[in-house]
Amino acid sequence: MLTSEVARLLLAILAETHHVSTAMTAQRTCILLALATLATSLHGFYSQSNKGEKLIEAHESSFAPKSQIEHYETVFIHPDGSVDTGEMLLIYAYGEEVTYGIVHFIKPKALSGFTVLSVQELGKLPQIYYTAPDEDSPLALSSSKWKERFFETPWHFEDILDDDREDWTYQNRGIVQINGVLADLVESAYGTGELKDRSAYSKREVYLAREDSRFLKCVYYGRDGDPLKSFEAGRHHDFGTPDAPRIRCTRLIVSDYRSGAMLILSLKDSVYDIELPERFFAPAQLPQWAENNTPQALILARGAK
Length: 305
Prior knowledge:
Elements: H1 4-15, H2 52-62, E1 67-77, E2 83-94, E3 98-107, E4 115-121, E5 127-131, E6 139-140, E7 168-178, E8 181-190, H3 193-198, E9 201-209, E10 215-222, E11 227-238, E12 247-256, E13 262-272, H4 289-301
Antiparallel strand pairs: 1-2, 1-13, 2-3, 3-4, 4-5, 5-6, 7-8, 8-9, 9-10, 10-11, 11-12, 12-13
């Protein structure tokens, strides 16, 4: 359990003012304190015209950039209640033939320089590379290590992959209510045997708001069938226009059900649909990524050229 001091810190973090649009109503803002699993009620509604695939497609179309750089401030609560603050970059370039992803930690000191790269080529199994602080060369992640975590964080290596690029099966499981918001519940699992074998997960449950298909929550189940962790989204912001909304959460809480660790990500800066340098996604660049790419990535995320 968290100490009272940590609990007060969490409440302060979740209550702080963030640079999100004030045009979003309170009903469309979901601020979640994930100290326990949220209670939901399943109503058993099924509709042949509202299948899981269609629900996921509607969600994906609600926010579909060609590229993105997102700069997050992070708060990591260890299982013993100690707290580390930090910063990280989440960068993607989405192409028809190949999609690249980067997770790069700027702070805290223990994670500074740790970088993960995903390469998802059409028709091929994904490749994941990484480099740890003080490493001189990039490392290709073997299939058996997809299930491992980034150090002590709730992140697994496979979380970097863009789901749109891989084979998943989807099933509509009905309508639930989360914090007063009606949501469609979609259960999904890898449809390809080798991806299933590499994954730490047996399935996941995704909760999408019925009013606008925005992402609310996702619960991942371990290979033993029990809940492993959850991603809970809040403080949604519309980065688009009234005619073409692009809804993205600006607060994400990752809760590890097994260890009790928690990671809170708050979006600080972001930019979408810009041309990104090829060197961002070169495996050979990973050991020098912080020195060669972080300054430019931060400038771009702040909207400067």
